[in-house]
Design a protein that fits this description.
- It is a single chain.
- By secondary structure, the chain is α+β, with helices and mostly antiparallel strands.
- It folds into 2 domains: 2-82, DNA polymerase, domain 1 (Orthogonal Bundle); 92-222, 3-Layer(aba) Sandwich (Cytidine Deaminase, domain 2).
- 45% of the residues lie in helices and 16% in strands.
- The chain has 11 helices and 6 strands.
- The chain has helices at 2-16, 23-31, 41-51, 54-59, 62-66, 73-78, 82-91, 101-112, 149-159, 179-194, 219-222, and strands at 118-125, 131-140, 163-169, 198-205, 211-213, 217-218.
- Strands 2-1-3-4-5-6 form a 6-stranded mixed beta sheet, with helices on both faces.
- Helix 2 (23-31) packs across helix 3 (41-51).
- The longest helix has 16 residues, at 179-194.
- The chain is elongated and about 60 Å long.
- Residues 229-234 have low confidence and may be disordered.
Length: 234
């Protein structure tokens, strides 16, 4: 019975693409490679019941997805990667240039504007602000999320970056830096400077319409300012 349903869903996709499917069918279809012999319908429906929408499923953290009964670990690791992967492909992020905090926030907001848990991303820039890479650094509960200095530096060295912008979200909806945010920023900036790389900014994103730059201030203040050649905390 499950195989017959799979065949019908596959035929729908072959004829009209995945977007003709209902949301639960889309999740069923995406789970097929991870669950080759079992029925994926119960897991798909439980994902929608738990998170409320397809968008929320893809914005859930690995840990939240793993909490769903029967959810394969590899699928839980893969689903949160769909959004940044598609965003990067559609916007050609590696071909762009970032020269202000406002531009950086605009690029990072689609990755950080949703979700119940904090996520930390790092944006890596080359000569004249050429965007080399955007990497997920960490995610977790508010108290657990940290800037993970070693991982930030490792990605910077691999990318050959000259400058780094770090960003994280505040699920509470308030784009206000905490003392821990400021302390962590100083630590990352000092560590990057030791390997000859500049920390250009740390941006806090709260929802889809609000951000704060630790280097340049509020959205209105940061919009027109180019990155300073010196660190804000010196």
């Amino acid at each position: 019975m499950a195989e017959g349903r799979r065949q019908r869903v596959r035929e729908k996709v072959a004829k009209g693409g995945i977007n003709i499917l209902a949301d639960h069918e889309k999740l069923e279809f995406l789970l097929y490679p991870y669950i080759p012999r079992r029925d994926t319908v119960p897991i798909a429906r439980e994902l929608l019941r738990e998170f409320g929408s397809l968008k929320a499923v893809f914005n859930a953290s690995v840990e939240e997805l793993e909490s769903i009964k029967g959810m394969p670990k590899l699928a839980a690791l893969t689903f949160p990667q769909f959004k940044p992967l598609i965003y990067s492909a559609e916007n050609n992020v590696c071909e762009g240039r970032i020269q202000t905090s406002w531009q950086a926030a605009e690029a990072l907001t689609p990755l950080l504007g949703y979700g119940k848990k904090e996520r930390v991303y790092a944006m890596y820039l080359g000569v004249n602000g050429k965007l080399l890479n955007i990497a997920l650094i960490n995610e977790g509960e508010t108290a657990e999320s940290d800037l993970n200095t070693r991982r930030i530096i490792d990605h910077a060295l691999k990318a050959g970056a000259e400058g780094v912008i770090i960003a994280h979200n505040h699920p509470s909806g308030a784009a206000v830096p905490s003392d821990a945010d400021k302390t962590g920023t100083r630590r990352v900036g000092e560590a990057l400077s030791k390997v000859g790389i500049k920390l250009l900014d740390h941006i806090i994103i709260a929802g889809m319409g609000s951000y704060y730059s630790l280097f340049n201030g509020s959205e209105e203040e940061a919009e027109e300012k180019l990155f300073s050649p010196s660190f804000w905390y010196k």
